[in-house]
Amino acid sequence: MEFSSSLYLAVYGTFLSLLLGYGSLGCLEEEKVGLLQLKASINHPNGTALSSWGGEVGDCCRWEYVTCDNKTNRVIRLSLWYIRDYDLGEWSLNASLLLPFQQLQILDLYENRLAGIQGLLRLKKLRVLNVRLNDLTTIPILSALPSLEVLDLGGNYINSSQGFQDLLGLKKLRVRMLDGMIWEQFQF
Questions:
Q1: Burial class (CB in 10 A: 0-12, 13-18, 19+), 27
Q2: Residues linked to residue 114 through DSSP beta bridges, in sequence order
Q3: Cβ atoms of 29 and 23 closer than 8 Å
Q4: CB-based burial of residue 183 (10 Å sphere; 0-12 exposed, 13-18 middle, 19+ buried)?
Q5: Which of 4, 5, 49, 120 has CA atoms 20 to 30 A from the CA of 83?
Q6: What pLDDT score was predicted for residue 107?
Q7: Mean pLDDT, the chain, as a whole number?
Q8: What mean pLDDT do residues 76-90 have?
Q9: Is the pLDDT of residue 130 over 80?
Q10: What is the torsional sign of CA 124, 108, 152, 159?
Q11: Looking at residue 2, what is its pLDDT?
Q12: 131 falls in which pLDDT band (50, 70, 90)?
């Protein structure tokens, strides 16, 4: 009898641990490394944003501003709005830093002094891209985002029609937000 109650407690304890997430494998190592590289880019040259990333909590799915899929533990959302210290000035995002996040569906970089995205964003699952209130002067290259449905470029300094043709090729794009005369001159 004592053996069966011990077995019951062990099974129950394991189940409870898994339910609470303590027994999960956590995020993929390549995504964890990718998040730490993204953090370094956002903080260049000497910022302190995202200080909790890489600390005591090893599972990046439990990090602030990161959402993972409950079944796959893949990063599906990065909510990085108003993260970069304003005094650090403008910065450019190297698109290759996002390559580990192949299941990413929502990328929110709202108000981060983002001046550009260098390279091609290759995120096949990305549905929402929010780069509102940044320092962009041109539309980033978005042609490799086949699932993009919502794009918010409002509140930037876009002064060129370069990149608008790429938007026409995005067949799922339904919501486009952009301020300024160029938007009014361009017909979708």
A1: buried
A2: 91
A3: no
A4: middle
A5: 120
A6: 98
A7: 86
A8: 97
A9: yes
A10: negative
A11: 56
A12: very high
Residue positions counted in the chain: 188
101: tokens are 């996040």
**What backbone torsions phi and psi does residue 60 show, to the nearest 5 degrees?**
-65, -15
pTM reported for the whole predicted model: 0.82
- Tell me how far apart the alpha carbons of residues 32 and 177 are, in angstroms, rounded to a whole number: 31
Q: Which residue has the tokens 């486009």?
A: 176
- Dihedral of CA atoms 44, 93, 114, 169 in degrees, nearest 10, equals 180
Q: What is the DSSP string of the chain?
A: -HHHHHHHHHHHHHHHHHHHTTTS--S-HHHHHHHHHHHHHHHTTT--TTTTTTSS---GGGSTTEEE-TTT--EEEEE-TT-S-GGG--EEEEGGGGTT-TT--EEE--SS-EEEEES----TT--EEE--SS--SS----TT-TT--EEE-TTS-----TTHHHHHT-TT--EEE--SHHHHH---
Residue carrying structure tokens 């780069």 = 131
- How is residue 23 written in tokens? 């027994």
List phi, psi (to 5°) of 39.
-60, -45
